[in-house]
Amino acid sequence: MNLREETNFMLKKYDLKANKKLGQNFLIDEGIVLDIVQKAEVSKEDLVIEIGPGLGTLTAALAESAKKVVAVELDDNMIPVLNERFALYDNVEIIHNDILKTDINALIKGEEHVKIVANLPYYITTPIVMKLLEEKLNIESITVMVQKEVGERFCSTPNGKEYGAITVSINYYTEPEIVIDVPKENFMPVPEVDSCVVNLKVKKEHIELKNEKKFFQVIKAAFSQRRKNLGNSLLAVAKDKEEIKKMLEELGIDINKRAENLSLEDFARISNWL
Fold first, then answer.
1. Which CATH superfamily is domain 212-273 in?
2. What does the pLDDT average to over 221-236?
3. Which class in CATH covers the domain with range 3-202?
4. Could you tell me where in the chain the CATH 1.10.8.100 domains are found?
5. CB 48 within 8 A of CB 28
6. pTM reported for the whole predicted model
7. Which of 250, 243, 255, 242 is nearest to 269 (CA)?
8. How far apart are CA 195 and CA 107, in angstroms?
9. pLDDT confidence of residue 125
10. b/e per residue, 118-153, with b = 16+ CB within 10 A?
11. What is the pLDDT, as a whole number, of residue 122?
């Protein structure tokens, strides 16, 4: 029985359908499932926290390689499926909760090697990823299936058309890389867009900042009016244009540049100056 047949079987057995409201699309390519586990570099030392396990397809593959899998599922209908499927597994724990409301530190419980793996609903990808990063959890990496456009945004570089505030934020916390391209035909039901798997290796040391809050204020201001040059877009975080002009001259940054032209280091230098 291939994964497509298995998924159909389980949906019929439990009288279930993909929940559009929760953005459910079931991965039906076994090769990609195994690739995700490999690209996440899951080992017997690792506690893996899986977000949105659904029918448990990826969960089962993770359990074969990990020390333990804690799977956090929001959908009421999936909990009986998961509890039955993994009843005999001694290294799988199912938690019925919203990941955005979950105390992830309580799940980690002092484990040294922790990785997060997920096939994320597209409508809530960025809030989940940023929650994981902003909480500064003791995790090694986040490996997530996301909409291809979002993955390209996460991994863009200065001057790229996808480069934006989320790019700089992601790069502040991690070293991002697209590790698998996943055409839409590999899901059931077939979504409207292609996907990719992004591996975010969490940095042990961040770029030096005098004030992290100011750093993110600068990023937000610079990209909120991305068509404007820095002389205008930074007014939200500086006293006036004269201060901006003085700062950029001292830092050797052209005042006519736009946010998309600046590197992570440039934003750090601006926020530190301010």
1. rRNA adenine dimethylase, C-terminal domain (1.10.8.100)
2. 91
3. alpha beta
4. 212-273
5. no
6. 0.94
7. 250
8. 28
9. 93
10. bbbbbebbbebbebbbeeebebbbbbbbbbbebbbb
11. 84
